[in-house]
Amino acid sequence: MAEVSPFRGWRFNKDTVGDIASVLCPPYDMIDEETQEALKRQSRYNVIHLEAGESLDWTTSAKEQYAAASNLFDQWRQEEVLCQDAEPCYYLMRHSFPLGDKLMVRVGLIASVGLEDYQTRQILPHEFTQAPAIQDRIWLMESLSANISPIMSIFRDTEGVLTQVFNKVMADEPEFDATDDSNNRTVLWCISDSDVHRQISEFFAGRPIYLADGHHRYEAARQYQLDRHAENEAAKAPNLAHNYVMMTLIAFDDPGLVVLGYHRTLNAVPEDKLAKIKTKINELFDSAPLSGNSDSLIDQVDAQGVNTQLLAAVDSDGSRMLRLKESAIDPSWGALSASEAWVLEEKVLRPELGDATLEHLDFMHDHDEAVEQARKGELQMTFLLKPFPLDAFESIVGGGQRLPRKSTFFFPKLPTGLVINRLEGEL
Q: What is the domain range of residue 217?
């Protein structure tokens, strides 16, 4: 089983940094150069000073890449900008965020989770990874000996056992309550009670944990662990921090667990192959014309896509709703036939484009940009996908299969900087 444990987290000292909202940032893979500079200006203590790094030159050594971040991390701990909790804790996060005209709220448990090989089926991945991004995160961990940002994971709590536990915790005074300029509100509680620790740990015994966002960070942590094991047999002791990784665990049934669509775009496909792709689309899908702006198109996809398989196609000639024909579904497709992205990539594009598919296929979660570029002819086609349903997610991933890349966009990303997990010594 995957062991879920409390740990002695390092947290920003409010007396030093002031407003906690000013030191938080998104995960590294959501930070472009402009965002990075804005966060640095926001506070000299913003965690971006430790977290950034995806765009660095992967051919240089870890020491060259992350020496400055490592020195700063040491300095912040020495100067008590960051302070370690005196006893192991679970950390409960309540995160409120706007979504359209709604205010969504989700609750996540920040915990240290025992690293497992995927083959044990205790930690379940849903997408494949890329080696350079994994190596980047390994170098960061080797330099800082820490997890800076938590992996987002999800679990099933049909009976609402942890909901009751969490509600009791949230009735107490929080450690902090911070709201940023985008109206994202984050409230954090520390759970130090040993009886509650036992309840939480026993709840997760034997329950699988599904990776939602952070596959590269998980696989980097697993490699970091194996590297320590190779150095010293004693490093395999189960109570050592490097045998764990920091996660924020959210229930499948949490009303604030939001999944948005991840859209596909096509470009630079030779005209003869593009014609064959369009013919294949017509073979597999029933087509109906669509009209409206990008928001209207995505609303129609979301509304009509409940309990059926469809997507919208947009190009310079117009927009169409594509509904997968029941007669087109081959039994050999199995559970993955529930994924429009899989059908599009494996049964429409790859037969024509082969190994060059990813040279022409790209991914966007901004539907406005994707539609505008297709209508202007800057892209050959845009395919608007509905959010992937969580029941199908659980069924497919729980059955041991992985979804196509960029199948899910869990929104928003978790804030980084609430808690930092050191990977030296014991938990």
A: 4-257+412-422
Question: What tokens appear for 322 in the block?
Answer: 């594509």
Q: Which amino acid type is present at position 147?
A: N
The two structure tokens encoding residue 132: 């350079």
Tokens of 247: 């996660």
In the 8-state DSSP scheme, what is residue 159? T
The pLDDT tens digits for 181-208 are 889 999 999 999 999 999 999 999 989 9
Q: How far apart are CA 415 and CA 419, in angstroms?
A: 10
Helix, strand, coil share (%) of the chain residues, nearest 5? 40, 25, 30
Distance CA 63, CA 70 (A): 9
CA distances from 133 to 57, 116, 128, 279, 310 (A): 11, 20, 12, 37, 32
Token couple for 308:
């059926």
Take residue 326 and report the two structure tokens written for it.
């029941």
pLDDT of 244 strictly over 70: yes
What is the rounded end-to-end Cα distance, in angstroms, of the chain?
18
Main-chain dihedrals φ then ψ at residue 397, nearest 5 degrees: -70, -40
- Based on the domain organization, do 228 and 339 belong to the same domain? no
Tell me how crowded residue 209 is: count the other CB atoms within 10 A of its CB. Answer: 23
Tell me whether residue 284 is in a domain.
yes
The per-residue b/e assignment along 281-293, b for 16 or more CB within 10 angstroms, e otherwise, is: beebbeeeebeee
In a domain, 402, yes or no: no
Q: Quote the crossing angle between the two packed helices 131-144 and 62-78, to the nearest 10°.
A: 40
| Cβ neighbourhood burial of 426 (10 Å; 0-12, 13-18, 19+) | exposed
- The token pair at 279 is 């013919």
Q: Do the beta carbons of residue 122 and residue 1 sit within 8 Å?
A: yes
Contact 316, 374 (CB under 8 A): yes
CB 102 within 8 A of CB 183: no
Length of the chain: 427
By the 8 A CB rule, do 114 and 391 touch?
Answer: no
**Residue pair 318/289 in contact by the 8 Å Cβ criterion:** yes
Residue 395 lies in a domain: no
Q: How many other CB atoms are found less than 10 A from the CB of residue 192?
A: 14
Q: State how far the alpha carbon of 237 is from the alpha carbons of 18, 205, 242, 379, in Å.
A: 39, 19, 10, 53
Predicted pLDDT of residue 58: 47
Q: What is the pLDDT of residues 35-91, one digit of tens each?
A: 888 898 999 999 999 986 545 554 556 556 688 889 999 999 999 999 999 999 999
In a domain, 404, yes or no: no
